[in-house]
Amino acid sequence: QVQLVESGGGLVQAGGSLRVSCAASARTYGIWSMGWFRQAPGKEREFVAAFRWSASNTHYADSVKGRFTISRDNAKDTIYLQMNSLKPEDTAVYYCAAGPSVLNASTVSFWGQGTQVTVSS
């Protein structure tokens, strides 16, 4: 069992930046893929970004490519999502995810509780 705890959400103006973090309660490096999803009101949860064991193997949704960067600190079992050039449509609850694959919500094994990101226009 892995517990995931997100932090760092908040309110930011359009064009601004924000970084969210996710700390895992157990070792994830070399075991689980990890990533981020988001869910806006009235919409389905959607994939945002993920990486596998190699930091060079990363995946992003087309809507965030070039603006968001996922990274990890293996020693701390923590991952980050740096969000730049934020847009109002990025407003959502952001969820940390871990599992054998996190490119699709159906294959995620563990979810965090979510952190709210609100981008004002």
Bin the strand percentage.
over 45%
Spell out the helices and strands N to C: EEEEEEEEEEE
What is the 3D form? globular
Return the average pLDDT rounded to an integer.
Answer: 91
How far is the first residue's CA from the last residue's CA? 40 Å
Radius of gyration: 13 Å
| Helical fraction | under 10%
User: How would you sum up the major sheet?
Assistant: 7 strands, mixed
Topology, number of strands: 11
Q: Number of helical runs?
A: 0
Question: Residue ranges: pLDDT <50 for 5 or more in a row?
Answer: none
Instruction: Provide the structure class.
Output: mainly beta
Structure description:
This protein is an all-beta fold. The chain has no helices and eleven strands. Strands 2, 4, 5, 6, 9, 10 and 11 form a seven-stranded mixed beta sheet that branches. Strand 7 and strand 8 form a beta hairpin. The chain is globular and about 40 Å long.
Any descriptors?
single chain; 7-stranded mixed sheet; mainly beta; 0% helix; 121 residues
Protein topology:
Layout (H helix, E strand, L loop, with lengths): L3 E4 L2 E4 L4 E7 L8 E7 L6 E6 L6 E3 L7 E6 L4 E6 L8 E8 L10 E2 L3 E6 L1
Parallel strand pairs: 2-11
Antiparallel strand pairs: 1-3, 3-8, 4-5, 4-9, 5-6, 7-8, 9-10, 9-11
Describe the structure concisely.
With 121 residues, the chain is an all-beta fold. The chain is built from no helices and 11 strands.
